[in-house]
Hints:
Strand order of the largest sheet: 1-2-3-4
Strand content: 15-25%
Low-confidence stretches: 5-27
Structural class: alpha+beta
Order of helices and strands: EHHHHHEHEEEEEHH
Shape: globular
Largest sheet: 4 strands, mixed
Amino acid sequence: MRLAPFRLTAGLVASALLLASLPAQAEPAFARLYKNQFGYMPSCNACHKDGGGTPVNAYGQQFKDAGLNAGAFAKIASLDADGDGQRNAAESNARANPGSDHSTPDAPGDWLDTSNLIPKPVRALFPDITTYKLVDALFTEKEIARAAARGVTLVTEDENTIYVPVRDRRPIGTSIIVPGEHQGQQFFVLLATDRQLNITHAGAIDATDFKAAQTASRYAAFVGQSVEHLNTEPADDAVQAAVDRAVLKAATMLLVRLKSG
């Protein structure tokens, strides 16, 4: 799997143009902290089960519990998050994945390959795509204000990664994974669009017994709509309302980051 060149082609969308020049390859803040600590950029699989935006694994949870900052690495250095008998810091220093028991200092595996930068649920949506452009979703004050005008609250900590599948050197759409919440329970929404930012897929990933992760009909109602103009029927219950909020947030992230306001 390859990552696309630095610039996307002009006209990533047809009638509503995306920005022709987009940021460099995504480096989320926590990955940058990891790089500063250990000297290399990790795969998102260090902290996430299936790549960036998906639920955190045991190492990601330890990092979160330790403060989500540079000092957290020292606090969890002697722990063994993945239970493979190797301390977290020993694995990281050896360029092995501290979040996977399939990666050890003696056999790090391919977790740093570029293919592992693309979450499995995203790759499943585009099975014939081998090239992606990763776009930082780091929100400026202007973009946060644009989101607020849509009734969506974004903060700098909401930074994310937008995955852009590329065919024949042309972007064919976008995708993003965004967490939602209902009564203290977290679920994850995967949203995908075509080049015109019309939604082609909306659904939950890492589905559990939590009802919002299984409300397929509610997600299906968003397919075909533009991320700029979303319409929904009134929610019948709090679960549907939680799904609506998560989808609207994901759509808004794509809109404010990729379409000039």
